[in-house]
Design a protein that fits this description.
heterodimer, A: alpha/beta, Rossmann fold, 2 domains, five-stranded parallel sheet, four-stranded parallel sheet, 10 helices, about 15% strand, B: mainly beta, Alpha-Beta Plaits, five-stranded antiparallel sheet, three-stranded antiparallel sheet, elongated
């Protein structure tokens, strides 16, 4: 029995197989409509996350399965003080697979160690969110036709953005991927990402503060939000905030086949004027999230 | 400085200078009834300075813990005044229930019953990380 807690739990060939399965689901949805008949997904969401929860639930429903669960800790036994381990054991009696979101880092790992059914980490605080990374990879694959030999720009908050760290970890396992890390000094990738991923894997990367300077070389642009509370100085925030807002004029030098991704929710870091640009992929990304979660549920339930 | 000779017991040698007391606490040597000596900053040809622990009784040692402190530590088992065994601990793959995760956002910080487990993630630099939140052990 397998669980998915960290994207690093999956080998490159397993990721490729999941992406291939998701693409087959997209091409032949009817083939998968009853694959999880009489199977139940329990969505254990200890903090609200509408998009991720609904994505998991619609994935299971489209596989012909059913969904049970809760969407906030207050409506679960956690409010009575039940441990994550006990909840996992109890839910194992009712469901076939668990998707868990929890504000504390490592909670889904605890669940996986105690459940007798597969557990999917649907986000544990600022730590891991492997299905977001799978979503990003499927989107890049669908948009570019490949996951190797390209230049990927990550822009915005690269210090606290867990989605960026996971994407760097996953994409750096593919050949010929160059990274351009675009952020203010205050929000550069943390040292552990630099040493454990970029340097350890001998990844080609460069860092810049200028999105416009990096734009012409990018095949993929992964945007994240620069939040006011991350800055020590208000003056620095005011000086830099507009630099990392993607507007049509900043796209003038971009490649015509650039793919713009964002994990959402967006606040103001991508102008709505970009939404109609064919290079904007962030809403397609949401749809891809459902397909890759369908593929993942099938894999973990060992349904062919 | 003279410390009495051990007849039956253990000498934990080549402890990095300054870490003897930490090891004393981890091994819970304060709970023993027998004689225990901690020698700090003893001269060492190999290390310059070292700490030494002498325990006047043969006790079970947690070699994973010793390996975590330093795999170059030497454990000498003494019987009838003679050294009958000399061992070096291995760098353990996992450390359970010894070091604690300091990350306030880690699930171990709010679920008190959870065992703190650390995994070796970088053998060369002896880096251990919490299996739950990946925080580096300090």
């Amino acid at each position: 029995m397998r669980s998915l807690i960290d994207i690093a739990d999956l080998s490159v060939s397993e990721i490729d197989a999941l992406i291939a399965k998701a693409q087959d689901i997209i091409a032949n949805p009817e083939k998968y409509a009853e694959k999880c008949h009489r199977r139940k997904l329990a969505t254990l969401f200890y903090e609200p996350s509408t998009r991720t929860r609904l994505s998991f639930e619609s994935a299971m429903l489209e596989l012909g399965g059913q969904v049970i669960g809760f969407s906030e800790a207050q409506s679960s036994s956690a409010s009575k003080g039940e441990s994550v381990a006990d909840t996992a054991r109890v839910i194992s009696c009712f469901a076939d697979i668990i998707a868990m979101r929890h504000p504390m880092e490592g909670a889904p790992r605890v669940a996986a160690m105690n459940a007798s059914i597969p557990v999917i980490n649907a986000g544990d605080g600022g730590h891991n969110h492997p299905t977001q990374t799978l979503t990003d990879l499927l989107t890049i694959k669908r948009e570019k036709g490949r996951l190797d030999h390209m230049t990927v720009g990550c822009c915005g908050d690269l210090k606290f953005g867990r989605t960026v760290h996971s994407l760097l970890g996953a994409m750096s396992r593919y050949e010929g991927v160059d990274f351009v890390l675009i952020s203010p000094e205050e929000l550069k990738v943390p040292e552990h990402v630099r040493t454990d991923i970029l340097k350890a894997r001998n990844v080609s990367y460069r860092e810049t503060e200028s999105l416009q300077e990096a734009m012409p070389e990018l095949d993929v642009l992964y945007m994240t939000r620069v939040q006011r509370e991350r800055f020590i100085s208000e003056a620095d925030y005011v000086r830099l905030k507009d630099t990392y807002i993607l507007t049509p004029d900043k796209l003038e030098t971009a490649k015509p086949d650039l793919a713009i991704l964002h994990p959402l929710p967006r606040v103001n870091e991508i102008s709505v004027a970009i939404d109609k640009d064919p290079r904007a992929c962030y809403f397609k990304q949401v749809l891809n999230g459902k397909f890759i979660r369908m593929a993942l549920i099938l894999m973990l339930l060992e349904v062919e | 400085m003279l410390i009495g000779t051990i007849v039956d017991g253990i000498v934990i040698d080549h402890i990095p200078a300054g870490r003897g007391m930490e090891l004393y606490r981890y091994l819970e040597l304060d709970k023993l009834q027998c004689e225990v000596a901690l020698i700090k900053n003893a001269p060492s040809g190999k290390l310059g300075k070292k700490d030494i622990l002498k325990v006047n009784e043969v006790i079970d040692l947690n070699f994973d813990l010793l390996g975590y402190i330093d795999p170059h530590i030497t454990v000498n088992i003494i019987r009838n005044g003679q050294r009958v065994e000399k061992r070096h601990p291995d760098l353990p793959e996992t450390i359970r229930g010894v070091i604690r995760c300091k990350n306030p956002r880690c699930i171990t910080s709010c679920e008190q019953e959870l065992e703190h487990i650390f995994k070796l993630t970088d053998r060369e630099n002896r880096v251990y990380r919490c299996i739950y939140c990946d925080t580096k052990a300090k």
